[in-house]
Amino acid sequence: MVTRDLVIDDLVTRDLACTLSGVFNLFAYGTLEFEEIFQRVTGTRAKAQPAELIDFGRYLLEHRPYPAVVPVRGSVVVGTVYLELADALLGRLDEYEGDEYLRRNVRVQLRGAGDLDAVVYVLLPELEHNLTTSPWDKQHFADHHAQKFLSGLPGPASRYSQ
């Protein structure tokens, strides 16, 4: 799936696109696609639109209700791109994603509107053994896990709390 050269190169260049302009785009493919979770994590609202990440696959992590993406040639991940976020938010996102993910610069396809640069959080290659073969189901997460997930995040009560 992922080559070590790719990861090493990414470690060197992962912040370059973010720091040059002062803003970045974020490709979200799991929990951050939920506006309430995104706002709780970042403390802000952002313009968002559907997007696709080419040559990546999204899979559930073992014993967790959320997914990870890894490079998979020929696969496509449908998600959400948040546009023009302030670089100051990178620290919050890094903390939220934790040590299991690597922030990586990618190109995403906008539906019917070309492509653009974005960052995405990719599972570390040494943790790929924790992936299942099951795809992630956004609606299943909303119905069965969102309330508990949000209760573990700092911030006000959630609409999922009922």
Tell how many strands the DSSP assignment holds: 5
Q: At the third CATH level, what is the topology name?
A: Hypothetical upf0131 protein ytfp
From the spread of the alpha carbons, the general shape counts as: globular
CATH architectural designation: Roll
So what's the CATH class? Alpha Beta
Structural class: alpha+beta
Instruction: Work out the strand percent.
Output: 35-45%
- Output the strand order for the largest sheet: 1-3-2-4-5
Helical segment tally? 6
Low-confidence stretches: 1-19, 157-162
Count of spatially separate domains: 1
CATH homologous superfamily heading: Gamma-glutamyl cyclotransferase-like
Biggest sheet statistics: 5 strands, antiparallel
Helix-strand sequence: HHEHEEHEEHH
What is the distance, rounded to the nearest whole angstrom, between the alpha carbons of the first and last residues?
A: 41 Å
Helicity, as a percent range: 25-40%
What would you say this structure looks like, in words?
This protein is α+β, with helices and mostly antiparallel strands and 162 residues long. The protein has a single domain (4-137), classed as Roll (Hypothetical upf0131 protein ytfp). The chain is built from six helices and five strands; from the N terminus they run H-H-E-H-E-E-H-E-E-H-H. It has helices at residues 4-13, 16-21, 35-42, 90-97, 138-144, 146-151, and strands at 23-28, 48-60, 67-86, 101-110, 115-123. It has a five-stranded antiparallel sheet with strand order 1-3-2-4-5. Strand 2 and strand 3 (67-86) form a beta hairpin. It is globular.
